[in-house]
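Sample entry as discussed:
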Amino acid sequence: MTETTATDLRDIPFHTAEGGTASLADYGDQVVLVVNVASKCGLTPQYEQLEQLQRAYADRGFTVLGFPCNQFMGQEPGSMDEILEYCSVTWGVTFPVVDKVKVNGGKAAPLYKALKRARDADGKKGPIRWNFEKFVVTPGGGIHRFRPNVKPDDPAVVEVIEAHLPR
C-alpha cells in the first residue's frame, strides 16, 4: 500500500460550515495546517496560537483549516453556528472552520482517514489521539504530523511552515 501524498489529499472533499463542499485543492499551492478543534478542551487556548500563525503567514500562502470534532469526551457539543460564533468572539478566529467531522473510527472523514497514515516525529501513525492534532500539508507533497501537546507556535511547526512558504 502506498502512503497518501499531499497531492492526493488535496482532492479529498470535505463539507464547509455553510453546507458546501471543498477540498484542499481549493487552497491552491498554500501550506495548510489542518487541525481538529474543540471549544471545551484544556487545549482550546491553542486557538490563540493558531490565529497568530494565520495572521503572520496568510499573506505568504498559508492557512489554518479547523475541523471541529466532538469525539473526545464531547468537548465540541455545539451546533456549527455556535462553534463559529465561539471561535470568532472568544478567539478572534479568521481562518476557515469547516463542518464537524469524526476523525477516528469507521465513520471518520475521508481526509482524516488519509491524514492518519502520516507519521509523527516519533515515527508513529494511526488514530488521532486528542483534540488539536496538527497536520502541515505542503504544496510539494509533504505531510508533517504534530500531536496535540505540540503547540501551534512550537519551533518545529513554525520551521516546517516557513520552509514551504514562498520566499
Q: What stands out?
A: The chain has a mean pLDDT of 93.
